[in-house]
Amino acid sequence: MSKLLILGAGGLGRMVGEVAAAQGCWDQIAFLDDAVHSSAVVGRCTDYLSLTGEYSQAVAAFGDNRLRLSWTEKLLEAGYSVPCVIHPSAIVSPSAVLGEGCLVLHGAIVNTNAVLGKACLVNSGALVDHDNRLEDGVHINLHSTIKAWCHMETCSRTEAGETVYSTRRSILGVEDRNLEDALFAFKLGEVASYVKPFGSGHINDTYAVYLGDGAGTLSYVIQRINTEVFKKPQEVMENIFGVTEYLRARILARGGDADRETLNYIKTKTGAPYFEDADGGPWRCYNYIPDSVCIESVRTPKDFYNSGKSFGAFLRELENYPAETLHETIEKFHDTRKRLRDFETALERDVWDRARTCKPETAFVQAHARDCAVLMDLLEQGRLPLRVTHNDTKLNNILFDKDTGEGLCVIDLDTIMPGLALNDYGDSIRFGASTAREDEPDLEKVHFDLELFEAYTKGYLETAGSALTDMEKEYLPWGAKMMTLECGIRFLTDYLQGDTYFKVTHSTHNLERARTQFKLVSEMEAHWEEMGAIVKKYSMTEGKENHAH
């Protein structure tokens, strides 16, 4: 015969007796109490030591938290088994952990992964939501709600009907409340060991999130999106989630490593693609890919070849993604005709009286005006297809394996939009096939490097070649020329407008940038036949084994 001894026969004790009877685990239930006298009370509380032979199980049922916890510990020391008493109408998750002597009364709920210490009392109708931690002796009063991720100290209590919100733990490196809110919104606040600024980007505020003890492990990256640049963050994130989830499915289908070959963005606790802070700032979060590195500039042709393979593979993987379903997050971003019109307007207005200082550059743009329509006209004529394009294909927007040097995945997906494959290819050439930095004032150092052009083209066509049309391959040199020309026009336009878009360090900074781009365009034109021959060479050998330079 199973028998339960309940210490305390007052109001709570009688309720616990009824709950134990309804639970149906004991054939006989008796009480010990110093003040209550009834047939069910078999002695005073101090008699518990003499009843260990008759009762193997006992529980303390006092409303005072410290008294209930103290008696629970005494019962355990005396050798009693101290069970949890749970009403049949209560709901306790299988993943919840309840310490000895917990009392869960009528209609109470203890949700997923909640942890309750010894002698906790969850009163009638109360809710302890998921991932809470209640220390020993806590009392959750009638119809109280403990929201997720709370921590309640030993012997603390709520008032009837009270709602307790998430308890914030201190995270090293977090001083901004918006960053803190974002971390907790993505369920990282409870597990992060420290956070620090990350990367060299100039648009979004980016932080590395470390988990674990000691030095910790870099596990996530969290970013605040710059709404001055990206005015519709909802559309940016819809594009990103659509593309990355599609890529993940493709990678898994071919047996690849989807945790390393694409970024994996995570949603908030509420299932939203991003979190909006109290100031309206949007935050997003994605996994960090370990053992990966960014390369800021081309060191060898092999680097550029590998980047060509990465961006080519990116295009090929998204070949069948419906580009027309993507939002145009920056309107007419690579419409070179529009860029020319913007330049002409800025030149006509000449608000800063700078037109007189850039006459050779102005003449260069005007001499190439007809070129600005070539690719857009082909798109509108249906001769070039609309693609899913990255639109910022710099070398440092690829993660490389730190050991092999091979490209792992393409990153910085804010500008994923419908566009031309030639734009992505061309922007890579513009950035990477130059012998000097973008703002080099000494044009004698600025040259178009045909060897680097060939290295990138080889890698790009090895991976993207099967997805490209013959027309796209034929016009790859035009992509390189037009993206370089367009960038130069944008620099020159900003110079005329008083440097309102690109950050500058001196008054002629944008003019110097424009000059480097126009120098590259001129050298591309000088090597035009050679560029075409290189493209033709690797178009014919695409898909075959080739050795890197």
UniProtKB/TrEMBL annotation:
Domain named Aminoglycoside phosphotransferase: residues: 195-450
InterPro entries: Aminoglycoside_PTrfase (IPR002575), Kinase-like_dom_sf (IPR011009), PglD_N (IPR041561), Pseudomonas-type_ThrB (IPR050249), Trimer_LpxA-like_sf (IPR011004)
Pfam families from the UniProt entry: APH (PF01636), PglD_N (PF17836)
UniProt-recorded name of the protein: Phosphotransferase
UniProt source species: Ruthenibacterium intestinale
Taxonomy, superkingdom: Bacteria
Gene3D superfamilies xrefs: 3.40.50.20, 3.90.1200.10, Hexapeptide repeat proteins
Residue span, PglD N-terminal domain: 3-75
